[in-house]
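Example 3.2
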Amino acid sequence: MEHPGFRTHQGNKEVSMKKFILALSILASQLIYAGAVKDKFLELSDKLDKQKASIDERTKILEENINRAIKMTLMQQYNLCNAEKAEIGKDGYEVSELNQNLIYIQYQGFVGYYLFASNPTAFIQYPIDSKVLVEADAKIVRSYDSACADSGTAK
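Structure, written as C-alpha cells:
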C-alpha cells in the first residue's frame, strides 16, 4: 500500500525538479555575488597596501592613534574629566624593536604600553591591549580632580 504523501506521478516530479533548479540557481547567484564583493574588497585592499604614505603621514597617524588611546585610558580607567586635552609628543612614546605594533608611552605621570592589532602607522585604530601604570598617582589624580572641580564637571 502506498502512502498518500508519496506520489510518484509525473506532475510532482516536475514541480520538485523546478524547485531544485530554482534553489540551485539562487545559491549559485549568491556565490557569484559574494565572489564579486570579495574581489572588490581584495582589489581595494591591494590598492591601499600599494599606496606608499610618506614618513610624515605615517608618523601623524601613529601619533593620532597614541593620543586617542591615551585619552581613552585617562577617561575610562582613571575617570579624568580633562583627558581630551591630553597630547603626547614625539619624545613621549617609543616603538618596540621586536614588534612594531607595541608602543611604549610616557605621559606626565603615566607609563605603559599599547598593543595594536596591526601596524599603527597604517590606519586609525584603537589598541587591542594596554597596561598603563601611574607614578605618584595621588598627585596626578588630585591635580586632574581639582581641574575638574574648577571647570564644574566634577562628579
